[in-house]
Amino acid sequence: MKDKLTAGREGKNLMPSKADQRAYLKTIRDAADGGDILAMAAILGLARLDDLLKAERPQSVSGWVGDATDPGEQIRATIRANAPDSKQLPENQ
Question: Within a 10 A sphere around the Cβ of 40, how many other Cβ atoms?
Protein backbone atom coordinates (compact mmCIF):
# COMPACT_ATOMS: atom_id res chain seq x y z
CA MET A 1 0.00 0.00 0.00
CA LYS A 2 2.82 2.41 0.89
CA ASP A 3 4.42 1.80 -2.51
CA LYS A 4 1.16 2.79 -4.16
CA LEU A 5 0.84 5.96 -2.04
CA THR A 6 4.40 7.11 -2.71
CA ALA A 7 4.66 6.12 -6.38
CA GLY A 8 6.42 8.85 -8.37
CA ARG A 9 7.42 10.89 -5.32
CA GLU A 10 10.95 11.51 -4.12
CA GLY A 11 12.52 13.43 -1.28
CA LYS A 12 11.56 13.87 2.35
CA ASN A 13 7.90 14.73 1.84
CA LEU A 14 6.14 11.60 0.65
CA MET A 15 2.65 12.83 1.46
CA PRO A 16 0.00 12.22 -1.20
CA SER A 17 -1.10 15.22 -3.22
CA LYS A 18 -4.56 16.77 -2.75
CA ALA A 19 -5.71 15.03 -5.94
CA ASP A 20 -4.50 11.69 -4.58
CA GLN A 21 -6.22 12.36 -1.25
CA ARG A 22 -9.50 13.11 -3.05
CA ALA A 23 -9.14 9.93 -5.11
CA TYR A 24 -8.48 7.81 -2.00
CA LEU A 25 -11.43 9.38 -0.18
CA LYS A 26 -13.68 8.74 -3.20
CA THR A 27 -12.60 5.09 -3.14
CA ILE A 28 -13.49 4.87 0.56
CA ARG A 29 -16.85 6.59 -0.03
CA ASP A 30 -17.69 4.25 -2.90
CA ALA A 31 -16.84 1.24 -0.75
CA ALA A 32 -18.96 2.60 2.12
CA ASP A 33 -21.86 3.18 -0.29
CA GLY A 34 -21.43 -0.43 -1.37
CA GLY A 35 -21.88 -1.63 2.21
CA ASP A 36 -18.27 -2.14 3.29
CA ILE A 37 -18.28 -1.95 7.10
CA LEU A 38 -14.59 -1.02 7.36
CA ALA A 39 -15.03 1.81 4.88
CA MET A 40 -17.98 3.12 6.90
CA ALA A 41 -15.84 2.98 10.04
CA ALA A 42 -13.03 4.81 8.24
CA ILE A 43 -15.42 7.60 7.18
CA LEU A 44 -16.71 7.95 10.75
CA GLY A 45 -13.16 7.96 12.10
CA LEU A 46 -12.06 10.62 9.64
CA ALA A 47 -15.08 12.77 10.50
CA ARG A 48 -14.31 12.45 14.21
CA LEU A 49 -10.65 13.28 13.60
CA ASP A 50 -11.67 16.43 11.74
CA ASP A 51 -13.82 17.49 14.72
CA LEU A 52 -10.94 16.82 17.11
CA LEU A 53 -8.49 18.83 15.03
CA LYS A 54 -10.86 21.82 14.94
CA ALA A 55 -11.72 21.64 18.66
CA GLU A 56 -10.30 24.23 21.01
CA ARG A 57 -7.52 22.72 23.07
CA PRO A 58 -7.36 23.25 26.84
CA GLN A 59 -4.45 25.13 28.36
CA SER A 60 -1.53 22.84 29.04
CA VAL A 61 -0.06 22.62 32.53
CA SER A 62 3.50 22.94 31.33
CA GLY A 63 5.18 26.28 30.96
CA TRP A 64 8.51 27.85 30.21
CA VAL A 65 11.41 26.85 32.43
CA GLY A 66 11.33 29.15 35.44
CA ASP A 67 7.70 30.10 34.85
CA ALA A 68 5.35 29.95 37.84
CA THR A 69 3.49 27.03 36.24
CA ASP A 70 6.66 25.07 35.43
CA PRO A 71 6.26 21.62 37.06
CA GLY A 72 9.98 20.82 36.77
CA GLU A 73 10.74 20.78 40.50
CA GLN A 74 7.71 18.63 41.26
CA ILE A 75 8.75 16.17 38.55
CA ARG A 76 12.34 16.05 39.82
CA ALA A 77 11.10 15.54 43.41
CA THR A 78 8.98 12.59 42.27
CA ILE A 79 11.95 11.10 40.42
CA ARG A 80 14.18 11.59 43.50
CA ALA A 81 11.59 9.80 45.67
CA ASN A 82 11.14 6.86 43.28
CA ALA A 83 14.55 6.48 41.62
CA PRO A 84 17.28 8.52 43.34
CA ASP A 85 19.98 7.20 40.99
CA SER A 86 18.08 8.18 37.83
CA LYS A 87 20.11 9.81 35.04
CA GLN A 88 17.22 12.25 34.54
CA LEU A 89 18.29 14.14 37.65
CA PRO A 90 20.90 16.87 37.17
CA GLU A 91 23.00 15.63 40.11
CA ASN A 92 23.38 12.18 38.50
CA GLN A 93 24.56 13.32 35.09
Answer: 15
Domain contains 48? yes
Instruction: Let me know how long the chain is.
Output: 93
Whether the Cβ atoms of residue 51 and residue 43 lie closer than 8 Å to each other = no
Is 30 part of a structural domain of the chain?
yes
Number of folded domains that form the chain:
1
CB 42 within 8 A of CB 28: yes
Q: What is the pTM of this model?
A: 0.45
DSSP 43: H
Kindly report the CA angle at 21 between 39 and 54, in degrees rounded to 5? 80
The answer to whether residue 35 is domain-embedded is yes
Q: Is 50 within a domain?
A: yes
* Among 92, 93, 72, 75, CA closest to 84: 92
Q: What is the pLDDT of residues 17-41, one digit of tens each?
A: 888 889 999 999 999 999 999 999 9
